[in-house]
């Protein structure tokens, strides 16, 4: 994996937004896989600013959802569909039909998982997938010990993940669903470019294990080591446990400006 260490969360957002803009200039109708949560917010704000400044045309871009809660009513403000429409699609000025995601309220959730996996393939595959990382090393909602070959499927959330996500439900863990639909690790690895963004000291242990530890299902993000084009963008706090931090800084500093991520 290529590891890019930046000063802070804002710099991380700008770095990733630049990479997305570069992709859209080369492929205007690129399919962008987006993540939710607080970490990717700076990416979406920076990309929106570039679009509004005329630095990049996003009008043909397509957006694909990484995961979704199961059982939240349609239109619930914390469904990931609502979050992506609110924080990504609307600010970029895209039509809702530019967005695709799994149906967490489907009567047959397993069929919805299979349908979404097929839809991603039929759309030509994800060009760039933005990922976050959990404190336990999960990506998407692929919790520790998920199969590295897994496809889009139903998962049961760990208690830690529900605790982490309670902040989006007014701190009430009882309101956090217990089940989700998530792209599997095997599905995620089919994207042409994977970009994992992590900020904050609380992610430092997970980042170190994912980047420098062995590939292991107990750290799902370590599967990115198997991908031919995976980039990890971390701020100084999230990079604090990396043994090779100085090497990563020197390597990225030596890259030509045009090469990007």
From TrEMBL:
Record-annotated active site: 67 (proton acceptor), 136 (for ring-opening step), 138 (proton acceptor), 143 (for ring-opening step)
Highest rank taxon of the organism: Bacteria
EC number: 3.5.99.6
UniProt keyword terms in alphabetical order: Allosteric enzyme, Carbohydrate metabolism, Hydrolase
Catalytic activity line of the entry: alpha-D-glucosamine 6-phosphate + H2O = beta-D-fructose 6-phosphate + NH4(+)
Pfam families: Glucosamine_iso (PF01182)
Pathway in which the depicted protein is active: Amino-sugar metabolism; N-acetylneuraminate degradation; D-fructose 6-phosphate from N-acetylneuraminate: step 5/5
UniProt cross-references to Gene3D superfamilies, sorted A to Z: 3.40.50.1360
SUPFAM superfamilies assigned: NagB/RpiA/CoA transferase-like
Site (described: Part of the allosteric site): 146, 153, 155-156
Activity regulation summary: Allosterically activated by N-acetylglucosamine 6-phosphate (GlcNAc6P).
Xref: InterPro entries: Glc/Gal-6P_isomerase, Glucosamine6P_isomerase, Glucosamine6P_isomerase_CS, NagB/RpiA_transferase-like
Glucosamine/galactosamine-6-phosphate isomerase domain mapped to chain residues: 10-226
Function according to Swiss-Prot or TrEMBL: Catalyzes the reversible isomerization-deamination of glucosamine 6-phosphate (GlcN6P) to form fructose 6-phosphate (Fru6P) and ammonium ion.
Protein family: Belongs to the glucosamine/galactosamine-6-phosphate isomerase family. NagB subfamily.
UniProt-listed PANTHER family: GLUCOSAMINE-6-PHOSPHATE ISOMERASE
The protein, known as: Glucosamine-6-phosphate deaminase
